[in-house]
Amino acid sequence: MIKSELVQVLAAENPHLFVKDVEKIVGAIFDHISTALAEGDRVELRGFGAFSVKHREARVGRNPRTGDPVEIEEKWTPFFKAGKEMRERLNQEDVALAAAE
User: Fold this and answer.
1) Which GO terms fall under molecular function for this chain's record (predicted)?
2) Could you tell me the pTM of the whole model?
3) pLDDT tens across 57-91, in order?
4) Rounded Cα–Cα distance for residues 37 and 14 (Å)
5) Which secondary-structure segment (H or E) carries 3?
6) DSSP classification of residue 66
7) Cα(101)–Cα(83) distance, rounded to whole angstroms?
């Protein structure tokens, strides 16, 4: 699902809201999550999961085509860890799908 599809689903479920208002709400949520991560904060959405930032040290990698060593700079990367309720919900669906086959 992409952002525009999310907006359409939320707008359909909330007919009292205009689509442009739903776009602003979704955009604001994503902006706040991005800003918090950029500041080094952790964002936890109960029942869904937690977003955080992990530090990766500088290292020497390999060019897969030539095998030559390549210096890789240190960097910060976003990280998502699914919450317990999300994992349970996904695993219940896997069990239901397997039973249907």
Assistant:
1) DNA binding; structural constituent of chromatin
2) 0.72
3) 999 999 999 999 999 999 999 999 999 999 999 88
4) 29
5) helix 3-13
6) T
7) 28
Alpha carbon distance 4, 98 (integer Å): 31
Taking residues 31-50, report their average pLDDT: 95
CA separation for the pair 59, 70 (Å, rounded)? 9
Q: If we measure between CA atoms, which residue out of 81, 6, 88 comes closest to residue 43? A: 81
**92 confidence band (pLDDT: 50, 70, 90):** confident
The pLDDT-based confidence of 95 (bands split at 50, 70, 90) is: low
What one-character-per-residue DSSP string does 9-58 give?
Answer: HHHHH-TTS-HHHHHHHHHHHHHHHHHHHHTT--EEETTTEEEEEEEE--
How many angstroms separate the CA atoms of 81 and 71, rounded? 29
Both tokens assigned to 11: 């707008």
- Sequence-distant (≥ 6) Cβ neighbours of residue 46 within 8 angstroms: 83, 85
